[in-house]
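Extended Data, panel c. Modelled sequence:
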Amino acid sequence: MVHNPVTPDTARAWVDFDLDAVVRNARSFAARTGVPMLPMVKADGYGLGAVAVARALAEVEPWGYGVATIDEARELHVNGVLRPILICSPMLPDLAEATASVAARPTVGNLEGLRAWLALGDRPFHLEVDTGMSRSGLRWDDVTQLMEARNLLASAAGWEGVYTHFHSAERDDLATADQWRRLQQAITTLGRRPPLVHAANSAAGGAGPSYAADLTRPGIHLYGGRLSGLDSVPVAAVRARVVGVRRLPAGG
């Protein structure tokens, strides 16, 4: 039983959060997949504190951290997080300089964004390929766009990574395998393989090294989500005060 003193913050309800459990989940995921992690700390660490989570996960030596926005990247940067930060939302071309100002890697998902980022020099970036999520990224089967990107990437020293998003790794093995095949085909069309290829989210991590590539991107598993093939422990509990106890007659 948890006995928290009554304070203004805990007078009614609160959340207990166990950073050690996050680290434990990260270690189990790394052991299952066998490659470095790019843990997702977007949305303020899924509402549990991005800076605190990033600092705790430093002991498992992740490659870097994934966020969704420039502001999220800035928060990590100004709080002393030194590992690479990847903004996983596609970069708007007009925000290239703002992205560079927070020392973050952008996700480039279209030719306009690619040109805008390359105009800033050889800063690192990751290219997104749409293999079926149909949300953002260069289409895996749009040979015209991929060939134009290939020409731009030929001399792009900052091209550090390429990735895709699995849309249903938790329930559709065939679709996931097909997306993986499409990613490999797109990389071939782009002409060369960058140092970092990544695709595996939490659910795909349940398949072990099958989709691990060079990096994995666990999110929900780190925060206690239960997925097939993975061993996770809860990291947060919502608690509330008992405000009264009543006795009722049997059948009342």
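The beta strands are 13-17, 65-67, 85-90, 105-108, 125-130, 138-139, 159-163, 196-200, 215-216, 236-240. This feature is highlighted in the accompanying rendering.
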